[in-house]
Design goal:
three-stranded parallel beta sheet; alpha/beta; 97 residues; single chain
């Protein structure tokens, strides 16, 4: 754990350098309040055949929660928008493989 803490400033510096190199700073000016969960779909590489049912089930699971869940197709979003969504999220979920 100490190694991770020691590396944190270097990672932050690396992150800033990469993002600025692609003219992607600032990505997020400030984090919105509350819990925000971003669910990522990538239909070209990891298609969900029952996407509508999956979205409905996930939304239902969070129906009585204060968390806000949003669904996004990252295959169609520009990199800057993907980074903005990920940076503003409290949690990130999707199909991984």
């Amino acid at each position: 754990m100490d190694d991770l803490l020691a590396a944190a400033p270097r990672f932050a510096s690396f992150r800033r350098r990469v993002l600025s190199g692609f003219a992607l700073l600032p990505v997020v000016e400030e984090k919105p309040p509350g819990v925000r969960i971003v669910f990522v779909f990538r239909p070209r590489s990891r298609a969900v055949v029952n996407r509508e049912a999956a979205e409905a089930a996930i939304a239902h699971d969070f129906e009585f929660s204060s968390a806000k869940v949003t669904f996004h197709d990252f295959d169609t979003l520009p990199l800057r928008e993907q980074l903005r969504l990920v940076s503003s999220a409290s949690g990130l979920a999707g199909v991984h493989g």
